[in-house]
Amino acid sequence: MVGRRFRKSPGEIVIALFLFLLAIAMIYPIYNQLVLSLTGPEFIAEADGTTLWPRGFTLVTYRSVLAIPKVYLGILNSLLITSVGLVVNIILTSMGAYVLIRKDLYGRPVFMTLIVITMIFEGGLIPDYFLMRDLHLLDTYWSVIMYKAVNPYYLIILMRFFAGVPPSLIEAARIDGYSEMRILFKIVIPVSIAGIATISLFYGVFHWNEYFRAMIYLTTEAKWPLQVILRELIVSLEKAAFIGAMNYQRAAGAATIAFKAIKASLIIIAILPIMAFYPFVLKYFVKGRMQGSVKE
């Protein structure tokens, strides 16, 4: 029985090998950037971007990059936009999903049709810009936070979770005198924590990686998120231009740090929060995505 349990068919072996190679292909670019960021400045030229182990291990690149005022401020801006945006997303999406699962909601088919239409057609960048201008949100954090405050796809996923809450539980809460808001936040959301965790990951990645609309809506450099600064670095054609723009003269030892190591360290800093956040929702991710997307 033990031998049969561990016996694999040729097809399963091929699939496992393919998935292993695919995982290596996705992980290696990140690992390579990590190695370059930890490699000593004198060995960067020898590494030529293909080294497997950091030579002359050092943290001087990270210390120098984090000493740049704009990089540090960009990290704080990204954390602010992501955290506040995530709270707004969860609250508004939960409220919308809770209302739309009500069978007695007047005009429910019309609302659902309009929501599905927005999944296919969008107004575009110019109407969005005019809307932000008319709301006087340009050059404010709210212009980035409120964009897609409710994603229709994530709304439908959360509706599937809320629909699975036993109606008897909700009715018992109403008999006990609970208001609809209290039912939502005290009963429905805790029961659907897997769905909340799943869409939290989606929303969090979206906010953290946002840079295009931040470039358009935020005209003050002090409000730029980290991704905008990262883009400015990547598209820079000369190291000297970047050093001048980012005030690298204030960073200790900046003149000896290779441009390639600077770029690698900033990439690692940009993706590290998401990589740290993912394990906390991993146990809910697969269950949440499948359960919320498949109709029972």
CATH class of the largest domain: Mainly Alpha
CATH topology of the largest domain: MetI-like fold
What percent of the residues sit in helical stretches (DSSP H or I)?
Answer: over 70%
SSE class: mainly alpha
Walk me through this protein's architecture.
- With 296 residues, the protein is mainly alpha-helical.
- It folds into 2 domains: 58 residues, no CATH class; 227 residues, MetI-like (MetI-like fold, Orthogonal Bundle).
- Helix content is 71%, strand content 0%.
- It contains 16 helices and no strands.
- Helix 5 packs antiparallel against helix 12 and helix 5 packs across helix 14.
- The C terminus is likely disordered.
Outline the fold blueprint.
Blueprint: H1 2-5, H2 10-38, H3 44-47, H4 60-66, H5 69-100, H6 108-120, H7 125-134, H8 141-145, H9 152-163, H10 167-175, H11 180-191, H12 193-209, H13 212-217, H14 226-234, H15 239-245, H16 259-293
Features of this protein?
disordered C terminus; MetI-like fold; 2 domains; mainly alpha; 16 helices; 296 residues
Brief write-up:
With about 300 residues, the chain is mostly helical. It contains 16 helices and no strands. The C terminus is likely disordered.
